[in-house]
């Protein structure tokens, strides 16, 4: 992945816009995910976001993962996903990490809408099972009532 600004590009080609086919500001919504050492659940969350009808631009804000985990997280970088890291020497409250990640995400958001999520809802297998079960029941109801399709 080549990041903006693109080097060795003439100014008329707008090197600051990067080379992604779909620019970040051309998406309808940006989804932000603050993370800390949770590559497995993050990759699942990203996969679920990419399955949405309206595909979001995804911003992952790492709040201090280990070197091994940040390397895995950085491997998710793609044309629809960017990763930013916050490396802090300390905070006053444990919630500061997520609050600062959300502040950064609001500054980085280039779409009209921002969807703020946390991958933590995927941490509990039981909760995830309930979530998937609910989605499946909703989908079955849609299939049973053809008038629901628009």
Q: What does this entry look like structurally?
A:
This protein is of the alpha/beta class and 150 residues long. 35% of the residues lie in helices and 15% in strands. It is built from four helices and four strands, in the order E-H-E-H-E-H-E-H. It has a four-stranded parallel β-sheet, sandwiched between helices.
Class inferred from helices and paired strands: alpha/beta
Order of helices and strands: EHEHEHEH
Number of helices: 4
What is the percent of helical residues?
Answer: 25-40%
> Can you give the mean pLDDT?
85
Q: Under the CATH scheme, which architecture would be assigned?
A: Alpha-Beta Complex
Query: Quick one: how many beta strands?
Result: 4
Task: Give the overall silhouette.
Answer: globular
Low-confidence stretches: 146-150
Radius of gyration: 18 Å
Could you give a quick summary of the protein structure above?
This protein is 35% helix and 15% strand. With 150 residues, the chain is of the alpha/beta class.
Please name the defining characteristics of this protein.
four-stranded parallel beta sheet; globular; 150 residues; 15% strand
How are the SSEs ordered, and which strands pair?
Elements: E1 29-35, H1 39-50, E2 57-62, H2 67-74, E3 81-85, H3 96-108, E4 113-116, H4 125-144
Parallel strand pairs: 1-2, 1-4, 2-3
């Amino acid at each position: 992945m080549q990041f903006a600004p693109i080097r060795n590009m003439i100014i008329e080609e707008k090197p600051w816009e990067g080379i992604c086919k779909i620019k970040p500001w051309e998406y309808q919504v940006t989804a932000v995910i603050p993370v800390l050492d949770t590559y497995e659940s993050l990759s699942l969350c990203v996969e679920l976001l990419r399955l949405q009808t309206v595909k979001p631009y995804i911003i992952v804000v790492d709040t201090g993962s280990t070197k091994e985990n940040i390397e895995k997280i950085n491997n998710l970088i793609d044309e629809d996903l960017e990763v930013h890291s916050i490396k802090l020497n300390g905070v006053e409250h444990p919630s500061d990490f997520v609050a600062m990640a959300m502040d950064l995400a609001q500054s980085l958001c280039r779409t009209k809408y921002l969807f703020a999520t946390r991958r933590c809802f995927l941490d509990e297998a039981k909760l995830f099972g309930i979530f998937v079960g609910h989605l499946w029941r909703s989908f079955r109801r849609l299939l049973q009532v053809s008038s629901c399709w628009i």
